[in-house]
Amino acid sequence: MNERSEPTNRSSNEIRFPEHFLWGAATAAYQIEGAARDDGRGRSIWDTFSRTPGKVYQGHTGDVACDHYHRYADDVALMAELGLRAYRFSVAWPRIQPDGTGPANPRGLDFYDRLTDALLDRGIDPIVTLYHWDLPQALGDRGGWTNRDTAEHFATYATAVYARLGDRIDVWTTLNEPWCSAYLGYANGLHAPGEQDPAAAFTAVHHLLLGHGLAARALRAAGARSVGITVNPADVRPADPQSAADAAAVRLVDGLHNRIFLDPLLAGGYPDDVREHVARIVEPTFIRDGDEKVIAAPIDLLGINYYAPSYVAGRPDGAGNGAYPGTEGAVHFLPPAGPLTDMGWMIEPAGLTRLLERIAADYPGVPLLITENGAAFPDKPGADSPDGPTQVIDADRIAYLDGHLRAAHEAISRGVDLRGYLVWSFLDNFEWAEGYRKRFGIVHVDYLTQRRTPKASARWYQEVISRNGL
Ligand code: FCB
């Protein structure tokens, strides 16, 4: 049925997205591929971290994950069945350079070659992320992102991937969520490599940004036409909108979460207030002349990952948050309130509208793409019946996605140049420190049998895509 031919039937809350709006889904290598030892893949910091007792729920690892490495053809067929027009995946650096440097491993590249061709055969646009957190362990041993050389190595690796896939892939993104790599990896230690050293975290921020800049430059020199980066900007809100102390707390957290990345990327350099804050924790000798120029080279798109807002209050007795060095004694982070997802994250679609509008206003001129949005819920698969396979009726996920798509649409109608939406995630997968116990997929994965079952949300999304709206 072609909905567009029946305008009289439309209810008032029906919405349509712009023509050519890109609909798709996202995943990341370590979270789905498995095949941890196949075809010469080296070890990554996540292989090490997941084997470190106490770091990941019940010691889960990405060794097998969704076995996507072997099942990619069926997975791509399912994407096509669901009508996805774009698929964002990441390349595992340790498959391409097992030790992070040196010649590219052709067998590692072969996998992404096959995946790319399978996607193109089905008319699905591949969107590449070059780094979704699986740093080769050999580079981790040399300090990881606290070592400036890692930024240079990243550009070399990016060039090797481009050399193989650049003829078929249009959209290239460098990093996924450098905030997580730097602060969860080096400040509060929740993610690999699990360090708790604020000075290291700020050093990593800079080297990640530098790595982005060097890789973007290398990709462009090699001929890439669309180069971007994905960030996870926070919608930071004051507990009390009237309070000056809360406004100051918002400013501080916004600086550490958002402007420390977005200003160098899109406004020419680090903001003064953030520089001053960082300098109280570590002397920023790691920022060298010319670095900011490299980081600020124009990009063609900015990927936005959005899940939840955060609320803060300015308080001298505030405990702060280990992920935001220097907020202790200044900021109280409010516990999430209201409806929550299975991650304990607030459900607040309006935060997405605010965030998109704010980025469009403060950093004008760069097209935006929602590279991740979605929710974990404790899905309860029904039993198989003689009439058909397991059903997963995930009404809560549908409601979450519906609310956030409406919020995205609202931003578009207020003038934001939003080009597309990629749901996180195509499959249930390895949710980092939470292991397999949190399910974000629109497709259910039975980890014992590797059977895929599209959830009700997948069928709903299929319908959204075919209508280009809700
Ligand atoms: C994002 C990550 C992604 C996934 C979602 C839930 O921070 O980029 O890999 O874990 O959160």
TrEMBL record:
It comes from the Bacteria. SUPFAM superfamilies: (Trans)glycosidases. Keywords: Carbohydrate metabolism, Cellulose degradation, Glycosidase, Hydrolase, Polysaccharide degradation. InterPro entries: GH, GH_1_N_CS, Glyco_hydro_1, Glyco_hydro_1_AS, Glyco_hydro_1_beta-glucosidase. The keyword Metal-binding does not apply. Its EC number is 3.2.1.21. PROSITE patterns: GLYCOSYL_HYDROL_F1_1 (PS00572), GLYCOSYL_HYDROL_F1_2 (PS00653). It catalyses: Hydrolysis of terminal, non-reducing beta-D-glucosyl residues with release of beta-D-glucose. The active site is at E372 (nucleophile). Belongs to the glycosyl hydrolase 1 family. PANTHER family: GLYCOSYL HYDROLASE, LP05116P. This is Beta-glucosidase.
